Amino acid sequence: MEEYNIETNCVQAGYNPKSGEPRVAPIAQSTTYYYEKGEDVAKLFDLEPGYMYTRLGNPTFDVVQRKIAALEGGVGALLTSSGQAAITLAVLNVCSAGDHIIALNSLYGGSVNLLGVTFKRMGIDTTFVDTDISEEELRNRIQDNTKVIFIETLTNPGLEIPDIEMFVKVAHDNGIMVICDNTFATPIFCRPFEYGVDVIVHSTSKYMDGHAVSLGGCIVDSGNCNWETGRYPGLTTPDESYHGVTYTKDFGKSAYIVKANVQLMRDLGSTPSPLNVFLLNLGLESLHVRVERHAQNALKAAQFLEANEKVTWVNYPGLPGNKYHAMAKKYLPKGTSGVISFGVKGGKEAAMKVMDSLKLASIVVHVADARTSILHPASTTHRQLTDQQLKDAGILPELLRFSVGIENIDDIIADLKQALDQI
Ligand SMILES: *Cc1c(COP(=O)(O)O)cnc(C)c1O
User: Structure pTM?
Assistant: First the structure.
């Protein structure tokens, strides 16, 4: 499917019906598969392709996995029940107790917690670094047991953009892989494999699903990582739990993604539901159209906010004055998502007033779907913290996170204006 442009792949990749079959990829809502003879099932256990149980594979998953692999330009993909599950599997596929990770400290909060607390409890240590860390400093953080450098293309919610090529260079010079969470950018705005990233993870719950209807995640394998650096014995030595296969020898370029499926998905079972995957596929069909509108609307909303006297600051990488504007031009030239954060005069109380006064934009603990939404972290997700603690955590009391939808931009701006007029 790579012969087509990305817009065509959003709509068509992954599914080629034969004459008389359903035009739309059907939902295989079945945990199990029918076989005529025992011999046919035995072959599956000898690693012949086919389905045995939905935890290990499903025809609906296969369609969407092929589509997302085509969108990112990878050799294969694995769908999971959530973005958190995708990150968990992507990391555990190469890390175990005693290993070390380097990650951005501005990653999605759920990832910071997963790496910094839960994985730490399991004996996997993470060093958190600034998005704009220098090359030299990054080299100094590498240890003999470092297995992964973990970045986000466009961080949620800080909207910081790392110099992907610099992180990749330092990692590869040391025989280490790079995992990149591409949730906010989506492959429409950035394809991290083109900059040397080895594995991509997604929370498909955001722009990919796009309608806030189904939670999901995905891991995509570039097929380009060199596993023979001595750091990844799990891929290069026999797996006793799976017939003694050696993934690099038996599966070549697909070693990583096959291992994630047949070993970790088998054991941890973070499987999505076929119905959710069907809904994700509908979202993907319009991904390229939606994210372009999200970004156009967000840029106009950010420009409006910047010019409004009640607004003290606006964080949107698409604005020329933004700290990450140069990185945005390099890595995200077509757009920097629909998410903006901004501060208002009058601190916490004023921010709450603005949030409560909005009519079109609704209050939700979610971003990146078709409907414009807002959240005031200081009075919701982080309400237990004092003003000083909020500042230490980088969450300013007056900060509002605004996720610009695909409604008419004049209506979105009019709504912002009337709400700001209340303070
Ligand atoms: C939401 C999000 C996640 C977590 O995904 P879930 O589907 O909610 O589990 C991970 N990374 C980023 C960047 C996200 O925005």
Answer: 0.97
